[in-house]
């Protein structure tokens, strides 16, 4: 006679493993977040100036740093979990060494990838700027060029355009402040920089007017192209 065994829909061991992984993942995320905030704080304290108007790193650098910290804490937790498994621990350590040797120099480059605006001038260090760019005074700026790329036709609102906001310096160098890895994130930050440029009478060149179909007169881009912003005090 066959013996019927009662089956359970939930297996405690699998749920325990899932909860353990969930707690581990949340802890890694939290530690990475704390380290990420600390990195931004140290970056701004290290590069700040008494008369600064604006200082901030770039999107790409901050995303890379957060991913680096997540992987770093993942390896640390893995070392702890494998402390009694010598062979697996050794292989994991070799992978960590390769990871660290490749990414740690990029972390240093991320630390120096920022935009600084002061009452004296502007300094922008790109990601691969090893030595760092000097602060350039306002009189060294030849002009600000305003242009745009059309993303959608008909072009009616600012969402249908991508602003080109480029500084040209007298030494021939340029800085695009609205590229994909821009250190400016919000409209208010662009307005702050723009009002400072107006204050120091930086010439503004508009490559072409906005399309006739553009009707959003309250938008940031419309006000830029129609000179509706006032210099900062």
From TrEMBL:
The chain crosses the membrane at residues 21-42, 62-81, 93-111. It comes from the Bacteria. Keywords: Membrane, Transmembrane, Transmembrane helix. This is Uncharacterized protein. It comes from Thermoflavimicrobium daqui. The keyword Transmembrane helix applies.
């Amino acid at each position: 006679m066959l013996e019927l065994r009662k089956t359970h829909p939930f297996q405690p061991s699998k749920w325990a493993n899932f909860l353990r992984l969930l707690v581990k993942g949340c802890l890694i995320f939290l530690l990475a977040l704390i380290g990420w905030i600390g990195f931004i704080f140290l970056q701004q304290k290290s590069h700040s100036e008494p008369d600064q108007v604006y200082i901030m790193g770039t999107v790409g650098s901050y995303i890379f740093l957060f991913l680096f910290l997540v992987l770093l804490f993942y390896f640390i937790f893995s070392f702890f979990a494998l402390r009694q498994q010598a062979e697996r621990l050794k292989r994991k350590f070799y992978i960590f060494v390769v990871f660290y040797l490749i990414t740690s120099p990029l972390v240093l480059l991320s630390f120096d990838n920022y935009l600084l605006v002061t009452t004296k001038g502007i300094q922008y260090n790109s990601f691969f700027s090893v030595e760092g760019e000097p602060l350039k005074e306002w009189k060294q700026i030849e002009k600000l060029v305003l242009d745009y790329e059309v993303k959608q036709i008909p072009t009616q609102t600012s969402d249908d355009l991508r602003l080109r906001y480029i500084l040209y310096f007298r030494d021939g160098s340029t800085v695009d402040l609205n590229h994909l890895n821009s250190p400016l994130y919000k409209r208010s930050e662009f307005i702050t920089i723009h009002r400072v440029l107006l204050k120091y009478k930086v010439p503004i060149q508009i490559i072409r007017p906005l399309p006739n179909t553009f009707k959003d007169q309250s938008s940031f881009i419309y006000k830029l192209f129609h000179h509706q912003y006032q210099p900062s005090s």
